[in-house]
């Protein structure tokens, strides 16, 4: 299936570029539907696009609630606000959850690549206790302080790939808003864009 | 029904204080369940707590999609990341949608109070064309450039009141995480808090 570079992708790359002096410019809010039927929303870090595709990579812990959420409803919406350029991207799509048990060798390779692309320090957090569970006193002794840099992904590490099919872009400086949506025609993806009222 | 000041409220007020030099410190991401059954997520502005309660005030346009969303599922989750102090608040609760047709005089009064608390410039946007609809060329001539400052809320103005019942707090500097949850016992609200793994 052919991949067409989405028209919103260049806008997003420009926003990343013009806000790159801010550490938090790669932080975005990732909303899912919780297993209790309520919305859930948390900050995650953008880990780039998968190869040359439009798919957004996010690292997460297999033991976090969002994994359960995505098993029940595989859709998510990213809200990404750039604090310096006053631009907002709302990116909606289906999420592929890639853990170590994935049967597809290509996907396991993507997961391994993303693991090695993350810093040794951020890899360590997957060896800590289960996120969200009650903290049993001082567990710092249980968390290893180093990890062999050549060791592959640990079992708790999970790669999320969000495949956008709707993007809403707002520029609060120019007061412009664009709505992008993807249609699949004969195995080809095609994006339309419309100017809408802010 | 008695209102107990929630233990997370002071943490939030401290975070607002320590990040107040940043214009975007009052911006938060508000997730709902869209009418298509997918998550929806957008940036909104914190407009303070309603009087002395724990309820969070947000201004919105009656014609925006989130109003439809909240009619079908009245729950929302706020994700609020403070970029200077590295603190995140995830605030989940039921949302009361207060528009001009609300039958409760007390709520209409709250709506009016919130309207006058917002700047004359921000009031003007409720007189613009319907947000999200296709933009029909240059409509700047249709949007009034001033509004009588003593005029009450226009029909498109809506006040949202989120009544928190679960709050998840993470401090990325100290690596601490606290889970707060509300229980109602004999008409009294009571909050529990637990240290959980980050």
TrEMBL record, chains A, B:
Pathway where this protein functions: Cofactor metabolism; pyridoxal 5'-phosphate salvage; pyridoxal 5'-phosphate from pyridoxine 5'-phosphate: step 1/1; Cofactor metabolism; pyridoxal 5'-phosphate salvage; pyridoxal 5'-phosphate from pyridoxamine 5'-phosphate: step 1/1
Species: Lactuca sativa
UniProt domain Pyridoxamine 5'-phosphate oxidase Alr4036 family FMN-binding: residue ranges: 6-98
GO biological process entries: pyridoxine biosynthetic process
Biased composition (Polar residues): 137-148
Record protein name field: pyridoxal 5'-phosphate synthase
Enzyme class per UniProt: oxidoreductase
Signal sequence interval, chain numbering: none
Gene3D superfamilies recorded: Electron Transport, Fmn-binding Protein, Chain A
Cofactor: FMN
Region (Disordered): 128-148
Enzyme Commission number: 1.4.3.5
